Each structure stands twice: as structure tokens, then as C-alpha cells.
Amino acid sequence: MNTNIENKTWLGSAGSAAYDLRTAMLAAIGSCSLQDDVLQEDDSTNDLEAYCAALTGKESGLFVLSGTMGNQLGLRALLTQPPHAILCDYRSHIVTSEAGGIALLTSAMVNPVIPKNGLYLTLADVEENFKPEGRIIACPTRVISLENTLYGVITPLEEVRKIAAFARERGVKMHCDGARLWEAVAAGAGSLTDYVACFDTVTLCFSKGLGAPVGSILVGDSATLGIARHIRKAIGGGLRQPGLITAAARVAVDETFGKDPNGEGGLLKHSHATAKRIEAMWRRLGGTTRVPVDTNIVWLDLKAPSISMARFNEIGREEGLKLTGERLVAHYQIYQNAEDTLGRLQRVFDRAWAERGNAVSVDADAKASIY
Ligand SMILES: Cc1ncc(COP(=O)(O)O)c(C=O)c1O
């Protein structure tokens, strides 16, 4: 049998990256447990769930394959039966990018709200759009779902607390799509436990800013998560030997969120600094961003240079960067080797501005790129 790894053509090129966590992850995978998680017998997975529950101040955690699965199970577990509605920001991932999962799994009506400040939902937005019980013609709001960060923008802790108090007074449940909540915490907006305390269920992703290959966690009380676990099984999300991926996820939490190797505020902070540099490069040319750069996401406004997204991406390709339009997401690995990446990006920006005005319309592109 040929065990020479170099001859395995299905393997990609390892590439190079600063802060490459593969060695640490492979070591964790090498000693993970290989038990059945459907029966909750897998130590690595049980340990990750308990660890995340403790980290966020909740009773229980449930490992799920994706952020989408976590959000959908959380919402399903919080809701009972129609008529019921979920109030959320109109740009929420649960509305725009989860393949209609809410309709499929909960039959809930979605009440998508445009925030008045253009950035995040406030108590005033919620009050204005909330549908109480007992109005026969309306669909009652039973869950308020907040995404934090949304477009990389932080909803301040104080605002979340006000909305949570409003919801609790009315017996309404709170869900947080916290796929990127780690980023708000790393930016100093509040602690994980303070934010999570405002919600009944929260999804946090291991595979975005934290850099794990797979997975998310849903946290909440044990009764709610018991329902979510049952439904996870019903939709084929019960896993037999997930230790391989939960061990890697644990490394991602500890190394990316939980550690600060250079005393500069953690690896996530590096990506925020990179995003700020990108924003500054764009602004020096006269550009603006669609929303403030609070964390690691930069939303360029391509209207000012008046370049189409297709052309912008094409210039990116010519400069060796794979761009997908106006949303640029910095990650912690773009840091030590930032000069090369940012140098290329600077050339893309310079060329985009040099071509200014040659493009026809950016609006059609912009509309197609919510996420
Ligand atoms: C805010 C937010 N929530 C949820 C998700 C869904 O995560 P997944 O792609 O793992 O389903 C994403 C994915 O980018 C996201 O950005």
C-alpha cells in the first residue's frame, strides 16, 4: 500500500499562512475521542459543548454543522405553533441567506424591519414593529432575533439589553445570530456573557473568524436545547463521530478567540486592524463605506468610483486577488503577510479609481450582493 502523502493527488497545496492553526488542530484531532454523539457519548464533543456553555454563561451547548443549522434549530425550538412571527432586521442572515429555512421548519411569519439608524435595530424600531398577542388580524411576535455583528457592525450592549427587557416583559423569546459575536467582544463592545445573557438562544460560529474547518454551537437552557437536539437528529444533523471536527473547533476557540500571543488584543483584533487599514486605503482615494468598520468587515461603496462589481472583481483577479464585490472580510491570517495582500488591494483600488466613471450602472450589482 502506498502511504506516501505526496502522491495523493486529491490533496491540495498546503499554502502558507501566518498563524496557521493546522498543526494544533491536527494534534487535537490525533487525540480526539471517536464516540457516538447521537447518544451523547463523545467526550470531545461533550467537552466542547460544556466549555462553550460555560464560556457564554448558559446551561447547555449543542454542536451543529453550520451557523444556518444553529439559527434554524434555535428558532424552531423557541417557537411553538402558528400563528407566530419573528421580528428581525431585514438584512438578517436568517431571512436573506438560509434558503427559506424559517418557512420550512417553523411556519413563522417573518417581520423584517429596516433600522431607522441604518445600522442596527433599536428598541424604538422594535416597539414600532412589535405585534402583541390578541389582535386578531395580526401575527403575534413570539421571537425577536438580532444578528450581532451584522454587516460587521456592532449592536451596542445597552441597546440589546433594552430590547431584551422589552421582550421579557411580554414573554417574547430572544434569539441571537451570533455567528460573528466573537468579533463584537474582541472589539471591546461587551463580554460574551453579558451579550449572551440577553438571549434565550445564541448561535456562535467556529468556522468564520475563528478559523475552524466546520461547525457552530447553539447555546441556551437545557430544556430548549433538548428540543433543538431532537430536531437536529430529525433533519439528519445527528453525528456519529464528530470528535474529529469538535476537537478542531475547540482549538479555534482557544487559539483565535481566547489567546493573545503578542499582547496586542488577540488574533481577532489583528483582523480588525487590517480592516481599518483597508478602510483607510479606500478613504484616501475619496471612497466611503456603506457602514462603519466596527470589526473585520469593510463594505466598500462602489458608487463613488462608479465601477461595476464585475469590473472590480476582474481587476482583483488581474492583481491576484479573488474578490466578490464590495464586501471585504479580513481574517487573522492576513496580518503577518498583510503587506503583500494589502499591496495588491491598493493596486486594485488605484485602478478602480483610475477607471472611475467608465462603468454603466453599479446599482444592479449592488442589489444582488446582500451577502
Ligand atoms: C451572520 C451570519 N449568520 C449565519 C451564517 C451562516 O453560517 P453557515 O454558512 O455556517 O451556515 C453566516 C455565514 O456567513 C453569517 O455571516
UniProtKB/TrEMBL annotation:
Aromatic amino acid beta-eliminating lyase/threonine aldolase domain ranges (all copies): 23-303
Keywords: Lyase, Pyridoxal phosphate
GO molecular function: L-allo-threonine aldolase activity
Gene3D superfamilies listed in its UniProt record: Aspartate Aminotransferase, domain 1, Type I PLP-dependent aspartate aminotransferase-like (Major domain)
Cofactor(s) the protein requires to work: pyridoxal 5'-phosphate
Pfam families registered for this protein in UniProt: Beta_elim_lyase (PF01212)
GO terms, biological process: glycine biosynthetic process; L-threonine catabolic process
Residues modified as N6-(pyridoxal phosphate)lysine: 208
Keyword Zinc-finger among record annotations: no
InterPro entries: ArAA_b-elim_lyase/Thr_aldolase, Low_specificity_L-TA-like, PyrdxlP-dep_Trfase, PyrdxlP-dep_Trfase_major, PyrdxlP-dep_Trfase_small
Signal peptide start-end: none
Gene Ontology CC entries for this record: cytosol
Family of this protein: Belongs to the threonine aldolase family.
Protein name per Swiss-Prot or TrEMBL: Aromatic amino acid beta-eliminating lyase/threonine aldolase domain-containing protein
Organism: Xylaria flabelliformis
